[in-house]
Amino acid sequence: MIELTLHGCNGGIGGAGRQTTCYGIGDRLIIDAGTGLTTLSLDQLEKIDHVVLTHAHLDHVACLPLMLDSVAGARATPVTVWASNEVITLLRTHLLNDHIWPDFTKIPSEDKPFMRFAAIDTEGVDIEGYFFKPLPASHGIPACGYLVSHQHNAIAFSGDSDDCAAFWKAITEVPLLNAVVVECSYPASMIDMADLSMHMHSTALIKRINALPLNVASIIVHRKPGLEQQIAAELRAGLGNRDLRLPEPGQRYLFG
Ligand SMILES: [Zn+2]
Ligand SMILES: [Zn+2]
User: What is the per-residue pLDDT for 134?
Assistant: First the structure.
């Protein structure tokens, strides 16, 4: 069984009901570290051993430095931050660089740090029994999605991406796919903005979801603030009676 909690699943902030990307897989692992992380208690934060990142945009990493600072004193082992080599380089250079925030890979010492980086290559990696395989994404900077498999279940995460044919091809080849967690930042009337910012829009997403097997649930995330209802109405109209889910922060799903 995979327990997925969408701590943050919005494309921006604005009130407690909007939190940026952070998904829990069980209690000890999160994908991305946006403001959704702020909805967890200190006890919950201290239990997180692994942070897996899709890319280095701020809405996906903003709360990572703050979380590390909050939990460091209470943990016996380092938090492992998993990402591609390119994303790790961006974080080392621009975020945990001893200017914007301390480099926690050297604090309190390089032998026993509060956090460590670990690279995920294209083959993927087993993290606590969950297999993470990077999936293609198209977002203008180093970025990926993930296929997360556990026992006989699998969930695909698009990360941030425009309409990436290679992502959809990869997931149609996955047997036992339970769900796709896919971004839809913009409605049909804002295709130009979607293309400019390399995000998905509802017109393209409807075509992609309608080509998936009927038993795959579609979980829509990263709707931009103020556009949520318009995007929801367009997807509902275009997807008939498919298993369409439009989560709010805190939503929990069990698969398997
Ligand atoms: Zn992004
Ligand atoms: Zn984003």
Answer: 98
How much is the pLDDT for 124?
A: 98
The whole-number pLDDT of residue 243 equals 98
pTM of the full structure? 0.98
Q: Which domain holds residue 192?
A: 2-253
Count the domains in the chain: 1
CATH number of the domain within which 156 lies: 3.60.15.10
Question: Rounded distance, CA 256 to CA 254, Å?
Answer: 7
Average pLDDT of the chain, as a whole number: 97
Centroid of ligand 2 to alpha carbon of 158 (angstroms): 11
DSSP-based three-state secondary structure for 28 = coil
Average pLDDT over residues 187-201: 98
Give the Å distance between the CA of 73 and the centre of ligand 1. 31
Res 189: pLDDT: 98
- Tokens coding 88: 């790790």
Query: What ligand has the least distance to the C-alpha of 161?
Result: 1
Residue 60 CA to ligand 2 center (angstroms) comes to: 6
Burial 164-195 (b: 16+ CB within 10 A, else e): beebbebbeebeebbbbbbbbbbbbebeeebe
